[in-house]
Amino acid sequence: MAYDIRLVKLVNGEMIIGKYVEKDGQANLEDAAVLQTVPTEQGVQMMLLPFGYPFDNEIDAVIDYKHVIYQYKKIPVDLEKKYLEAASGLAMAGARDLSSLQNMTGGATQGVSDFAEMLKR
After folding, report:
1. Where are the beta strands (DSSP E) in 11-77?
2. How far apart are the first and last CA of the chain?
3. How many CB atoms sit inside 10 A of residue 87's CB?
4. What 3-state DSSP class applies to 102?
5. What confidence category does residue 56 fall into, taking pLDDT thresholds of 50, 70 and 90?
6. Residue 31: phi, psi to the nearest 5?
7. pTM over 0.85
8. Model confidence over 2-31: pLDDT tens digits?
9. Are 5 and 17 in contact (CB under 8 A)?
10. Is 32 buried (19+), middle (13-18) or exposed (0-12) by CB count in 10 A?
11. Residues whose CB falls within 8 Å of the CB of residue 108, separated by 6 or more in sequence, listed in order
């Protein structure tokens, strides 16, 4: 399922990322997380936190879209990936990660070029 991930600024100035959902004419950002900037020696880093942090440790907040003052047109790919990982609790694998799986099987998949073929064995 593809989500409509949006990065927005709320009327109070907070930068929020979440899944845009429209139900019964009501628009919300679900599983909302706050994006905070943290100054470092190298410049600025971004930190993704649950909306209710420090009292809420789950990324499950729902924000009414009427509190949005600005919607960013583009979301950095790395930020969207980190958000989806944090919201789902699952790590996303890249192409390099998947190619290394063959080395982790201990030779059990030798001669198998297709995952479906492996399941048939």
Report:
1. 15-23, 26-40, 43-50, 61-64, 68-71
2. 30
3. 22
4. helix
5. confident
6. 50, 45
7. no
8. 789 999 999 999 999 999 999 999 999 999
9. yes
10. buried
11. none
Give the sign of the dihedral formed by CA 66, CA 45, CA 57, CA 4. Answer: positive
Q: What is the DSSP letter of 67?
A: G
Q: Which amino acid is at 110?
A: Q
Burial 10-26 (b: 16+ CB within 10 A, else e): beeeebbbbbbeeeeee
CATH placement of domain 5-90: 2.30.30.100
Q: Where are the alpha helices (DSSP H) in 1-121?
A: 77-88, 95-99, 101-104, 115-120
* Residue positions counted in the chain: 121
